[in-house]
Amino acid sequence: MTVINARAIAMVEQLSVDRAEQAVDVLVDSFYDYPVMRHIIGDTVDEYEGRLRKLVRFFVAARYCRDEPVLAVKESGRAVATAILTPPFQREAIPSLAKHREAVWKELGQDSRDRYEALGDLCRLFEIPEPHYHLNMIGVLKSHAGSGYGRLLLDAVHELSQEDLDSTGVTLNTEDAKNIPLYEHFGYRVIGRVRVTDDMDTWVMCREDDGHF
Predict the structure, then answer these.
(1) Which of 31, 93, 119, 175 could form a disulfide bond with 36, CB atoms 3.0-4.6 angstroms apart?
(2) Which structural domain range is residue 155 located in?
(3) Distance, CA of 9 to CA of 157 (rounded, Å)
(4) pLDDT at res. 10
(5) What CATH number did the domain enclosing 52 receive?
(6) Smallest Cα–Cα separation from 28: which of 62, 12, 51, 46?
């Protein structure tokens, strides 16, 4: 299990697997209108929230299956902000995870899977060769926007990387241009930009720990 250094961010903790659905709740709420989710899931107005929840639940389950970080800030014992990460070296996926993946894509449809995999292929054009953490998703409940919890999570992510001798930094993707100055404030820089559709780009960003990359 991932342990957050006590001298870093006292409010951030590893969310236990029995509270996984809390992480799903936070990420569904915060990513509901995010461009890349709309792009992957497609124009399914009546079923969108349920389909989004299935996709996010798989992303969260994958982290737990590999014992990867699922970080959270809680209020009154419930997660209100969450970040999920891929560490520098992934553990081998267990068979049940592959079955879960296939079940999700079977339900969401081949078109959704194709869009998701095409996006991944585009982002890999700017893949960093050095081992690093990748910030898959970070979100705060809309009801807690402006709380500073996103900053707490980012600080905890950066500390994880800095204290991991196998890691050289952190990468992330964003499809919202307004996020770029925010991440630059935290030491990230754009290393690539990809046109995904006529009205959506994705920016690949990185934050090096010790002048790597």
Answers:
(1) 175
(2) 12-208
(3) 10
(4) 55
(5) 3.40.630.30
(6) 51
Phi-psi domain of 109 (left: phi exceeds 0; alpha: psi -120 through 50; beta: other): left
Token pair belonging to 48: 């969108």
Considering its fold, how many domains does the chain have in total?
A: 1
Q: Are 24 and 52 in contact (CB under 8 A)?
A: no
Which residue's entry shows tokens 């990468």?
171
CA distance 211 to 18: 38
Nearest to 79 by CA among 5, 20, 121, 145: 20
Strand ordering across the sheet containing 200-208: 12-14, 70-75, 78-86, 133-140, 169-174, 200-208, 189-197
Q: Are 161 and 169 in contact (CB under 8 A)?
A: yes
pLDDT of 198 over the 50 cut: yes
84-117 pLDDT per residue, tens: 999 998 777 788 899 999 999 999 999 999 999 9
Task: Round to whole Å and give the CA distance between 91 and 157.
Answer: 19
Mean pLDDT of 143-153: 93
Q: Which two tokens stand for residue 38?
A: 């709309």
Which tokens sit at 33? 């209108």
The first and second tokens of residue 93, run together, are: 């996926």
Q: Which amino acid is at 101?
A: R
